[in-house]
Amino acid sequence: MALTPMKEGEKKAVAPSARKEPSVDGFKINGKLTGSMKEMASLLRTISFLEVAQEKSAINIVYVESRDINKSPYLFSVIKMKEAEVEVLYSIPQEISPKKRRIDVLRYLLNLLSVVDKEYEIENKVLYQLLEDAVKELTDSVTTDYSKLYTAYDSLKKDEVDLRKKAERLSDQLEALTNQNYELKSENDELKVRLAGLETLSEDTLKAKLQEWIIEHNGSINISEFSKVYKVSETLVEEVLNRLVSEGYLEVVS
């Protein structure tokens, strides 16, 4: 099986001011050297992204996935393969779930062991237990997160339904108010027309008013004042006065 990096893309520099120092965790698995350390180191060195350092009775395998701005390892793992034991240490950045990080490291370790399977064996029972625990923790976490997410979604969905009903009610009320406003406007226009008709004096009424005015004012009339009181034009007042004179109802006294 070919070994590939756990994350695709180039390694990134991480600003220390932007992130806290990662925590470190690890585990051990019993193993057994079935071949030679030298051959195992040679196989591991064929993987370009690994740093391999051989000791007398162990091989150190370093995988640095990212560094901070000072070039110090940030996301990394260190595996020490001894003749009878495998030690694994790895960093856990604050932004990565510890449960997911352990799954990633275990997957990486399995790939690594597949490369040297003819030179080294491990105690599968311990490895399987680690895998089972990690998967269970991750599954429980995902189930809990999904439950919280669904609860939030269900609440938002109810709010959305309530808001939609409220919007429909407001729309109906707005339509009713619009119709009512239209009816009131029509009624108002009709009243204005009727009022204008009532305010406009007929010619006979105007003649009678003019005669009353002249009698009450000792035979004189101020056309401008009469027009303002009865809201008729001065021109119309003059025309009706002339008709009253021509018809013999009034006489002009010089």
Mean pLDDT over all positions: 83
Largest sheet: 7 strands, mixed
Total of helices? 6
Distance between the termini: 133 Å
Molecular shape? rod-shaped
Low-confidence stretches: none
Structural class: alpha+beta
The arrangement of helices and strands along the chain is: EEHEEEEHEHHHH
**Helix percentage range:** 40-55%
Radius of gyration: 50 Å
Strand content range: 15-25%
Query: How many beta-strand elements?
Result: 7
- Oligomeric assembly: single chain
Written account of the structure:
This protein is an alpha+beta fold and 254 residues long. It has helices at 37-45, 98-115, 124-199, 203-216, 223-230, 234-246; strands spanning 13-14, 23-33, 51-54, 58-68, 73-82, 85-92, 120-122. Strands 1, 2, 3, 4, 5, 6 and 7 form a seven-stranded mixed sheet that branches. The longest helix has 76 residues, at 124-199. The radius of gyration is 50 Å and the shape is rod-shaped.
Core attributes:
254 residues; rod-shaped
Chain-wise SSE layout:
Elements lengths: L12 E2 L8 E11 L3 H9 L5 E4 L3 E11 L4 E10 L2 E8 L5 H18 L4 E3 L1 H76 L3 H14 L6 H8 L3 H13 L8
Parallel strand pairs: 1-4
Antiparallel strand pairs: 2-6, 2-7, 3-4, 4-5, 5-6
Helix pairs in contact: 2-3, 4-6
What is this structure, in a nutshell?
This protein is α+β, with helices and mostly antiparallel strands and 254 residues long. 54% of the residues lie in helices and 19% in strands.
